[in-house]
Every structure is written in C-alpha cells, then in structure tokens.
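Bench notes, afternoon.
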Amino acid sequence: MPAEATARPSLPKAPTGIAGFDDITLGGLPAGRPTLVCGSAGSGKTMFASTFLVNGATLYDEPGVFMSFEERAEDLVANVASLGYDLDKLVADGRIAIDHVQVDRSEIEENGEYDLEGLFLRLGWAVDSVGAKRVVLDTIETLFSSLDNEAVLRSELRRLFGWIKERGLTCVITGERGEGQFTRQGLEEYVSDCVVLLDNRVHEQITTRRLRVVKYRGSAHGTNEYPFLIDSQGISVLPVTGAALTHEVSSETVSSGVPGLDAMLGAGGFYRGSSILLTGTAGTGKTTFSSCFVDAACARGERCLFFVFEESPAQIIRNARSVGLDLARHVESGLLRFEAARPSLYGLEMHLARMHRDLDLFQPQAVVIDPISAFNGPEMEVQSVLLRMVDLLKARGITALLTSLLHQNYVSSQQDLGMSSLMDSWVRLFNEEANGEMNRTLYVIKSRGMSHSNQVREYVMSGSGIGMIEPYIGPEGVLTGSARVIQASREQAARVRRRQEAERRQRDLARRREATERQMAELRAALEAEEEEIALLHSEDAEREAALERDRDAMYRHRNAAE
C-alpha cells in the first residue's frame, strides 16, 4: 500500500514553549482553536496563559493579545515579571497587546438582543493592531457573570468560540473551578476543543500543583496528572510516566573519589551512567563520600549537580575541607552546582519536577542526591517518585550517587525505600562499637557487572582524605580500632620472638660448627703429625738399610783383598 494512502492527517498545533507540556500534548495546543484552562484560585491559570502568549511572541514569531476582565494591565505586567517576562517591552515592540475590559453588571441587561458584538469589535481591533496569532481571555466568568439564562449563555459561548475559529486564532480562555464541574457555568468545557485542568493541592500542609489534560479533540495526549512548577525559571511540567528500560549502558568506569573503594570494585570504579546507593547510619561519612565522588567528577572536567536536603552548600564545602577537598573551586569554575532545599518546601512531585528542570538547565554528567531518606510521605508515593528519578537519570546516562540514612536498629527489609533492587551498586557504611570506641567500616553489597571484594574494610577520614585500612581477622571476626592495633602488636611481638629464636638457633649452630671445625682441624693436625712421623721412620729405615748395604759392600771388598 502506498505511503500516501496510509498517512493520517495531523491536527495543527501551536507549541506553548512550556517545558514538558508540549510533550504531554504531543506538540502543544490546537492551533486556531480555543482551549479552556480552568482551576481554583492560585493554581496558576494566568501564569500559564501569560507564558503561552509570551513564548509565542518571543519563540515562535506569533504576536498575541491579552484581554483581561479582572487584572489591570500594570498589575499583569508586575505579576508576570516574577517569571522573567518583560511585557512592557513586548508591548512597546508591537509583539503583544494588553487590553483590560471592565465588566459592570449594572450596565448589562439580559434580554433577547444581548450579544458580544462589542467584545468582538474590541478584540478584533487589538488582534489587527499587532497581527496577533494568539489570544488570551482571562477570565471568562467575569465576562458572563451577569448572565443567568443558560440558553443565552450557551449561545454566546458558541458565538465566541466560533468567532475565534473563524479568525484562526489560537486562544487560551481561563476559567475558575466550579462545584462538581470544571467551570462555574459547566458549559465552557463542552464547547472547548481542549480543556486543561490545573489543581493546587495541599497534602499534610505541603502544596503541589498538578495539571491534567481533560480532553483534546482530534489528538492523542497524556491522560495522567502531572506536577508542574512555577518559579523564577518559569513553568515546567514533568511527565509522570517512567522511562522505558532501553537506556544505553557504558563499560567505562569512573572513580568514586576514594582509591581504596575503587580497589574493592572489580572494574576499578563505578560504571559510567550507573546508579549507586550509599547507605549508612548517622556519622558514617555519607556526605563526605559524596564530596569525594563530586571532587573526582569535577577533576575529570565533568559537570556535577549536588542536590542537598539537610545541609547548606556552605556547610558541605566547609566540612569537605577537613578531608582535604576544595569544592569551592569547582563551584567557581562552573563545574559544580548545589541545589539546596528543605524536603518540606515542596511536595514529592514538585521535588521531582524541580530536579527535572535543573537537569535540563545544567546538563550534568554526575548527580548526587543527599539523602533520599529525607523524602517523607506514603511509602508507595515515595517509591514512585524515586523510581522515576532513577529512570530519569539512567535515561540521560548520568552517573548518580544517592545516599540514605539508616537507623541503628536497621532491618534489611526496611528503610531502603525500595531502592536497593534498582541500584547498580550498593555500598553500606557502619559504625562498629567495640572496646569502648566507635570505628567505621564498609563493604560492597553488590556491584552489577563486576567482581567486587566481599571484605569488610575499616576506613578513616583525615586531612589527606578517606583511607582504607587493611583488614585484620581475629578469632571473632574482623578487628577494628584499638582491637586491630592490639592484634597488630601481638602479631608483631610474635614475629620478633620468632626472629629472636631463629637468631639464637643460628648462633648455636654457628658455635657447634666452629667447635666441629676446630675438632676437625685438631684431628687433621694429629693425622698430619702422624704422617710426618711415619715418613720420618721410613726415611730412617731407608738410611739404616743403606748403611747396612754399605757395610756389606765394605766387608766384601775387605775379604776379597785378604784372599
């Protein structure tokens, strides 16, 4: 079948420029159609509409008109300035027109001839003055507050929305939340092509803003509730769907910042893009290990984002100096950035949205979250947020170190917040009490894809950093602290005794060898003397034999002469 026959027409869309929202709506709001943005007071309707209008004028070359039925132009300019928008300049440049329409109930009489022709004329003039492609009407309740006849109200709403479509304007209409319905009249949502519901929810005294696309004619869209954040960086929306398990993996290793710990890992460090869980009781040095990890990342020239929830950045920088780390220089170079906030400042979803936005802005290669145990709330919600957080980091190939506080009465099935099975590596820190002192130990529970040490290692923190101490195994297990020192002294004394005993035996052997050699020399001398004596006897016998022979010869000659 030809591709032309299978191609489906797509609905034209106008991107809002709001981070995350265009992903949820698969491109933005329906172009040339009205969209209803409704919600309770303080949910961010006006901010959402203003962002849609300003981004259109600045990012997509689509001028716009903001028609307000409540706020004056100067109030609107002051309010959106908190998002970094300069409406006055956009108005002066002819990119945006602002019109404040004051609706007075006493001037409106509901009768058969009541219509919105005056509004259409005024809005049409504003649209033509800047060549607008986008329009915001804020809020529609004020415009129809004087109408009680539902038939007239529905008719005028249809006329308004029809006029918007005829002009090809992408329009955002804000409305207040009604009782049991999305708007007060309960009619706007039926005639709108797209309905976006904003909610400002308070749970346990913590506020979380959420967004939901209720309907979107002619287009697929995300149907879940999504947390969104409004701050000085603007509006950002975080999709709640976790990343698919298709992220890339790397065989490259990165240092933990602690040489002794790297040596315990079979590959000499953690795999790049992996997630590491560092758990331990209070005082074991979780933040110090995190600082070493950050320092090593920055030393490699990598950008690092440090999320802290219990200490201030200045406090972490000061404490890191005690182990010889200068994190301030990395902050000054722009490689290290701290994001500090109390856990109670936002709800769980808002923290996730904030992290998502910070990752987009800073684009780090390494992230530290210290600690994840600071997040409070229902266990399932905390696990859901942390799962999506890990998915987000893995999908971006970010090496992440997450710390978690454990209590002294830790039970293996508790307090890990369901994270242990998600982590690629898990290192546990302990405070061991023995002989009236506390000593720090660690061991690697797991490190996927590498053969790691199974030893329990003692470590010390000093001005030269974190150092690992070679383990001493005693009759009752691993010895630490003074017990290790005592055991080392005992072993040293035993070695000295063995060496002294060996030296004594060597001296005894030398003495025996000397005595033996002396005896052998004496025997050899005696043998030599006896040999000399025997040789002398042989010589004397020979001389005697020779003398006898001479005597015989002389006698023989004498006898012969006598004859």
